[in-house]
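Exercise 7b. Backbone tokens:
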């Protein structure tokens, strides 16, 4: 969990920008999106294969 303390004389916009950067670095949002719903292992393997196939240029 990302935690950001607002410094003295720091604007809310700057603190929000730092918070968003911390969340992005920690991968919190990506992890939440990945766990939004359950994927069966066979489905996740197929998705992974399709992504790799696209990278290789088919």
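Sequence design result:
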């Amino acid at each position: 969990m990302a935690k950001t303390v607002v410094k003295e004389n720091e604007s809310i916009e700057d603190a929000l920008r730092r918070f968003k950067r911390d969340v992005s670095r920690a991968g919190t949002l990506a992890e939440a999106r990945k766990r939004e719903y359950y994927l069966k292992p066979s489905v996740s393997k197929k998705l992974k294969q399709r992504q790799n196939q696209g990278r290789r240029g088919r």
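Instructor comment: The chain has one domain: 12-56. The chain has a mean pLDDT of 90.
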